[in-house]
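Form P-L/3: holo structure prediction, ligand 4-Maleylacetoacetic acid.
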Amino acid sequence: MSSAAAKPILYSYFRSSCSWRVRIALALKGIAYDVVPVNLLKDGGQQFSAEFKAVNPMQQVPALKIDGITLSQSLAIIHYLEDTCPNPRLLPQDLKKRAQVRMIADHIVSGIQPLQNLSILKQMGEKKMEWAQNCIASGFQALEQTLQHTAGRYCVGDEVSMADLCLVPQVFNAERFKVDMGPYPTITRINKALLELEAFKVSHPSLQPDTPAELRA
Ligand SMILES: O=C(O)/C=C\C(=O)CC(=O)CC(=O)O
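OUTPUT (holo model):
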């Protein structure tokens, strides 16, 4: 069998929001894969090991070995899955809606999550919680307003899109960092609707092979 036919391998950490985005895409598209867990806290962070650096020089999860290449950066991975496995589609056909999906995804992926990721929080010491709350809250204020124009049942209209794959893991982080979700009724409603879908359930941080027993669903 050629490497192109091998099952993809996802390097993942159960509660990494970026890993979860990719797990949702794989689940929605029905792509079977094996998980190699990378524990971001253990041994000073397994992402910094020489072994993992050889897989992903960026020393971050997720990374996906697929079709003979190794990809990192969750949205680049999701776009590859979209290009190679277009059903169900995660980008709307309508070009304006498509741009709105990308706008929302980028807002979360570039404008919120990197400000509250592990490497930044480590440098915040005691201010960690407050910092994460402020970054997520200011990002969500903008997102709430944006969604009031774009949302149907989901972030953009009534079809699940890449924006939704970014939203749900970011709300999980917000809850983890005890952000008051009161001011974001649209975000809360869409998150709830998405969590009813099977692909969002099976990929949830509480159900992963590396989820610690005390956090398992
Ligand atoms: O505290 C830990 O268990 C370690 C890391 C994470 O969960 C992942 C992140 O860096 C946050 C994120 O996904 O945005």
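COMMENT: Residues 9-88 form a domain with the Glutaredoxin fold (CATH 3.40.30.10).
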